[in-house]
Amino acid sequence: MNYKALVEDYRERLIDDLMGLLEIESVKGEPTGSAPVGAGPKAALDYMLELGARDGMAIKDVDNIAGHIEAGEGDRLFGVLGHVDVVPPGKGWDTDPFVPEIVDGEIVARGVQDDKGPTIAAYYAMKILHEEGLPFKYRTRLIVGTDEESDWQCTEAYFKSEEMPDAGFAPDAAFPLIHGEKGISTFNFVQKPMALDEHEPKIELKVLISGERYNMVPEDAEAKLKVQQNMSEVIQSYEDFLREVEADGAYEVDNGFLKLSMQGRSAHGSTPEVGVNAGLILIRFLNGLALDNNAAAFTEFAMERLVGSTDGSLLGMDFSHPEMGETSVNVGMINYTEVDGGIFGVNLRYPKGLDFESGMTGLKEEVYGQGFTVEDLDYQLPHYVDREDPLVDILTDAYRNHVEDDTEPFTIGGGTYARTLKKGVAFGAMFKDTVDTMHQKNERMKIDELLMATEIYLEALHRICIKGEMDEDKLL
């Protein structure tokens, strides 16, 4: 089968259908009975299902929040899982984010990389096989989600009632292939109330604020102090500290209060080691002051449990896997007030092999003795497909047949829709030299890369679902 020639025959139709999908402002909105995550995502779901019906394939809407398009016959099911919701466009675009334009061979629009372009590429791979009239060995199903950018309500609802594919992939990451994703957890360390100081402290910590999201390293931090005496000494100490740790900070005296600010460097929560956590740096300074007892307990806890290491060792959760790497810990949010005490918002990611539940049980007991509780715990288990699995081999080979790249399949600390599948991997659609513009202004995708991804998906689905290169025993 000449995959390149077939895709070229569908070039204009593919681009036209993608443009129509990109015009839909599918940002999560107010829920209604007929649109659980808003009218925009529901309109995008309807659009995809209408394409499937137009092209003679079976379609199904699941609770107005997910759906599927299916081709072929067979007892086994192969799934492709994409999403049509997008993040808000933000400011600073050179074009209207929901009026897609072709500029210098690239389609510019919100969602073209994440994940409408790859989803349409996978759809057209399935559509071409269907319209070629080839006999399917496995049913092939494009599952369409509408809440990937937020809470994954779509996949939760879908798999409550629908069949789990025997294997599949999510076209929402990078080539050649991601076959493992760390477990992802979020939780809060919440300080328990303490008795007030018997004597007025020299320095009272009124407020400390840093970070807004669990999965981002905070780049800013601010604290407000009431200094009863020797204000100039505290200021001099702060200036000395900034020079010592080579940090970027500032101070201001306002109505008798000392306001401190700290600048760090942001990074994704899956790689906290490449960022500079402004909140934790500021805590390092505060911990050296004669603080009131509540604030002192707060900073001392941070110094013992959170400052100085991102590998989980301070929490007793360090673990390393030969392919998936080490545990990582990001303190994404820090909030303290003299009235309510403090909270640390933690994003912990861990590889296959760590007994997370046992570790959390022990951690809860330990921190309780330090005056803290663990609250709002939420987690997803690690997802892993063996590197030698036939699914990995066939998809990687399909990629290399179109691209000169010997990069090996890899694992990540982030999470994709692939983890919702029993046996799933993330497969494209970014290439080795693709500029990642996901979630950024002027999001764009090269038309040549869109078509190349379609060719790769076409070969992969042809070999698995038509030719049956993964026999039934190995598919499970």
Architecture blueprint of SSEs:
Blueprint: H1 3-9, H2 11-22, H3 39-54, E1 58-62, E2 66-71, E3 77-83, E4 101-103, E5 106-108, H4 112-131, E6 139-145, H5 153-161, E7 167-170, E8 173-174, E9 178-181, E10 183-191, E11 203-210, E12 220-227, H6 231-245, E13 248-254, E14 257-263, H7 278-286, H8 293-305, E15 320-321, E16 325-326, E17 328-337, E18 341-350, H9 356-368, E19 372-380, E20 383-384, H10 390-400, E21 410-412, E22 424-426, E23 429-430, E24 444-446, H11 447-466, H12 472-475
Helix pairs in contact: 1-11, 2-4, 4-11, 7-8, 10-11
Relevant terms:
single chain, 476 residues, alpha+beta, Aminopeptidase, Alpha-Beta Plaits, 2 domains, 8-stranded antiparallel β-sheet, 6-stranded mixed β-sheet
Q: What proportion strand?
A: 25-35%
Low-confidence stretches: none
Q: What is the strand arrangement across the widest sheet?
A: 13-14-12-11-17-18-10-19
**CATH architecture assignment name of the largest domain:** 3-Layer(aba) Sandwich
Mean model confidence by pLDDT: 94
- Could you say which overall geometry the principal axes of the C-alpha atoms support? elongated
E-strand count: 24
- Intertermini distance: 27 Å
Report the CATH superfamily of the largest domain: Zn peptidases
Number of helices: 12
Protein name: Dipeptidase PepV
InterPro entries: Bact_exopeptidase_dim_dom (IPR036264), M20A_pepV-rel (IPR010964), Peptidase_M20 (IPR002933), Peptidase_M20_dimer (IPR011650), Peptidase_M20A (IPR050072)
Family: Belongs to the peptidase M20A family.
GO molecular function, one term: acetylornithine deacetylase activity
